[in-house]
Specification:
Layout (H helix, E strand, L loop, with lengths): L2 H6 L6 E3 L4 H9 L5 E2 L16 H22 L7 E11 L2 E3 L5 H11 L3 E16 L2 E17 L4 H9 L20 E5 L2 H5 L3 H12 L86 H21 L2 H5 L7 H8 L3 H13 L3 E4 L2 E4 L1 H7 L8 H16 L1 H7 L4 H5 L3 H10 L1 H24 L8 E5 L5 H9 L4 E6 L1 H4 L15 E5 L12 E5 L7 H14 L5 E6 L10 H6 L11 H10 L2 E7 L6 E7 L5
Parallel strand pairs: 1-2, 1-3, 10-11, 10-13, 11-12, 13-14
Antiparallel strand pairs: 3-4, 3-5, 5-6, 6-7, 8-9, 14-16, 15-16
Helix pairs in contact: 4-5, 8-11, 8-13, 10-11, 13-17, 16-17, 17-18
The structure holds the ligand O=c1[nH]cc([C@@H]2O[C@H](COP(=O)(O)OP(=O)(O)OP(=O)(O)O)[C@@H](O)[C@H]2O)c(=O)[nH]1.
GO molecular function: nucleoside triphosphate diphosphatase activity; O-methyltransferase activity; protein dimerization activity
Cofactor: a divalent metal cation
Protein name: Acetylserotonin O-methyltransferase like
Length: about 625
């Protein structure tokens, strides 16, 4: 199975993972899928006894999780994704279904039941293709499940309790995490390991292959829902560039209740065979089953109108370090949080509720706690923390965007209006104010760290012995490169003011990696020698004259056969996607975002050839090119 083309089908789609599970996020991120995380609010309370087999429960729960998110995004958060992925992992032993333990006793009960025995882990997965047509949500649902058998060794009471006290069991199906300490309990695994961890990646890719490269009609089985005509719609998606707008329309009898549940599908079993493909479309209806007026407020626009409130809520919660405060703590009441951080109770409660509604916090009668994704990305000290970038967005980008109207009218940066200083003065500020410098570096570090693996592996770079990351800042990409290519020596070349502040960002507890930091100005100073030069998030920031200086210098020091790796978000040829890069342009730096063909043209102009572009599915894409050999 050719994996990449299959996942590539999702590259330009708005993909949403309807799951708070950090493991699922990691599994999908690791294969380069670009997606948003919108945890489902569907409560896992389906009546287990109404399912003939445990996997049917998992599949139905996965489906309801995904349906809830698809519907909420369409109606409430007012943006319709192209694809929503939901999953649910359960453990089945002695005809019992085990989910996540509610407390330590429950974990003990589960682990004792698994002790010394074989059990099955089922993950149900739902892939929903969505489309908004005349304000109606149309969906095609595909679901499947995967089973893995796991056997536990005979474990002593003492060991079980020690494991329970580690805290690991609490958010894991069956009360153990096979990928971490729980792996010590396991004697054997038969089947897909990642399925136990929470997402059957292999089966998922096969399912995508079925959907996007469908077999001929007579090979496809269609599941028949009681009152829903089975339909045959996925052929339209097989086109290489097809987007969700290629949906074929179908009339169906299924109804959605107000929470977005497909009531006809909520209890009955689905996908008896994991190979069965299901598909139907559902018009959005209100509680009375009456079609909503096509003239209702355009949801996409309302979402955009509201976007600034959501951003600011995230920024302020991050600034007040609410996610740090809740890290590793049980649920906390608003009043206690307010007292601890010195804010008003009523204001704090509103902010916490806003964060809960945005899926950043969980709210229960006991209080507020971090979601897994808040723990991973929003606390300030996490390995994958985006805290620095969020603070940079609040303190630097927000004031600039507040002056967007003037920026558009005048066609230039608005630093003088936003900060009372010219762009040049501000640039100096970066290097004179320790706080601003650290904040900026933390922002760059967050992004570099989260994208480094995809950039490093976009191409096979094992042929290179030395690399120089120009403007490599904290060395996040450099450290990733030496991990992936142990024979590669990487030099990070950046301004002295930057190099002086890198120590805080260096990986701890590791042997000194072959990363060297050299200070200098890439516009003025000699560049260190290397087989491979890297420009990550550099070109989009500078005007053509500066790029001319920089690329001429790199081209001059490159020997034939040496290469240049550019990491940027590559625009599509229309230059309207991905919107993250298009919106970034509104900062009105003197630089610009470029499409694939523009990068090719630019690099060829400076004597680089064989320009290859890899859309990674992450924030940064990769462009690799080689210095023309003399004979060419
Ligand atoms: O060995 C492991 N087994 C299971 C897990 C994790 O367990 C949970 C299963 O719970 P669920 O499917 O309900 O998913 P949630 O985490 O609640 O997130 P949703 O928002 O999707 O409901 C899942 O996180 C597995 O990853 C494990 O880590 N190791």
């Amino acid at each position: 199975m050719a994996l990449h083309p299959v996942l590539g089908k999702l590259v330009r789609k708005r993909v949403v993972l309807a799951s708070a599970s950090p493991r699922r996020q990691e599994i999908l991120t690791n294969v380069g899928l670009r997606f948003e995380v919108v945890p489902s609010w569907f409560k896992e309370t389906l009546e287990k006894s109404s399912f003939a087999a445990p996997y049917e429960y998992a599949v139905e729960t996965a489906k309801q999780k995904a349906l809830e998110v698809a519907n909420r995004m369409h109606v409430k958060h007012l943006r319709t994704p192209d694809v929503v992925i939901g999953a649910d992992t359960i453990v089945s032993v002695d005809e019992q279904i085990l989910e996540k333990p509610v407390d330590k006793q429950d974990a003990y009960r589960m682990l004792s039941r698994l002790n010394g025995k074989e059990h099955s882990v089922f993950t149900g997965v739902a892939i929903i293709h969505c489309r908004s047509k005349d304000n109606q949500l149309e969906m095609e649902i595909t679901d499947f499940y995967e089973e893995t058998k796991v056997k536990f060794s005979e474990l002593s009471e003492e060991l079980l309790w020690e494991y329970i006290h580690s805290g690991e069991p609490m958010d894991k199906a069956g009360g153990y995490g096979i990928q971490a300490l729980g792996g010590m309990l396991v004697e054997y695994v038969h089947g897909d390991f990642l399925n136990v961890v929470g997402f059957p990646l292999n089966h998922f890719c096969k399912k995508l292959a079925e959907l996007y490269y469908p077999p001929s009609k007579h090979n496809v089985q269609h599941k028949k829902y009681d009152s829903i005509p089975s339909v045959d719609t996925f052929e339209n998606l097989s086109d290489g560039e097809s987007e969700s707008s290629n949906f074929t329309e179908h009339k169906v009898a299924s109804k959605l209740d107000s929470s977005g549940m497909d009531s006809s599908a909520a209890v009955h079993t689905s996908g008896k065979s994991s190979a069965v493909r299901t598909g139907f479309t559902v018009p959005l209806e209100n509680q009375n089953g009456v079609s909503q007026s096509p003239s209702k407020f355009p949801s996409k626009i309302l979402e955009l109108m509201d976007g600034f409130r959501a951003s600011k809520a995230l920024f302020v919660a991050s600034k007040l370090k609410i996610f740090d405060h809740l890290k590793d703590k049980g649920p906390m009441k608003a009043v206690d949080i307010a007292n601890d951080i010195g804010t008003s109770v009523c204001g704090t409660e509103r902010l916490l509720d806003a964060c809960a509604s945005l899926g950043l916090l969980e709210k229960t009668p006991q209080g507020y706690s971090n979601t897994d994704s808040a723990n991973t990305f929003l606390t300030s000290d996490g390995k994958y923390s985006l805290h620095g970038y969020i603070i940079h967005s609040n303190d630097h980008l927000w004031p600039l965007f507040t002056n967007l109207e003037s920026a558009v009218k005048e066609g230039g940066r608005q630093n003088h209006r936003a900060f009372g200083k010219k762009a040049d003065d501000l640039f100096k500020d970066y290097y004179h104010s320790q706080e601003v410098k650290q904040r900026f570096m933390a922002a760059m570090h967050s992004i570099a760290h989260l994208t480094a693996r995809d950039v490093a592996t976009a191409f096979d770079l094992s042929q290179f012995k030395s690399a120089c990351d120009l403007g490599g800042c904290t060395g996040a990409l450099a450290h990733e490169l030496v991990q992936v290519y142990p024979n590669l020596k990487v030099t990070v070349f950046d301004l002295p003011e930057v190099i002086a502040n890198i120590s805080y960002f260096q990986p701890s507890g590791q042997h000194p990696a072959p990363v060297t930091f050299v200070s200098g100005d890439f516009f003025k100073d000699n560049l260190p020698e290397a087989d491979l030069y890297i420009l990550s998030r550099v070109l989009h920031d500078w005007p053509d004259e500066k790029i001319h200086v920089l690329l001429s210098k790199i081209s001059a020091v490159c020997r034939p056969g040496s290469a240049l790796l550019v990491a940027e978000t590559v625009l599509d040829e229309q230059k309207t996607n991905p919107s993250v890069a298009v919106l970034q342009s509104l900062s009105m730096t003197e630089g610009k975002q470029r499409s694939g063909s523009e990068y090719k043209q630019l690099l060829e102009k400076y004597g680089f050839t064989d320009v290859q572009i890899k859309i990674t599915g992450n924030l940064l894409d990769a462009v690799l090119c080689f210095k023309k050999s003399l004979s060419l």
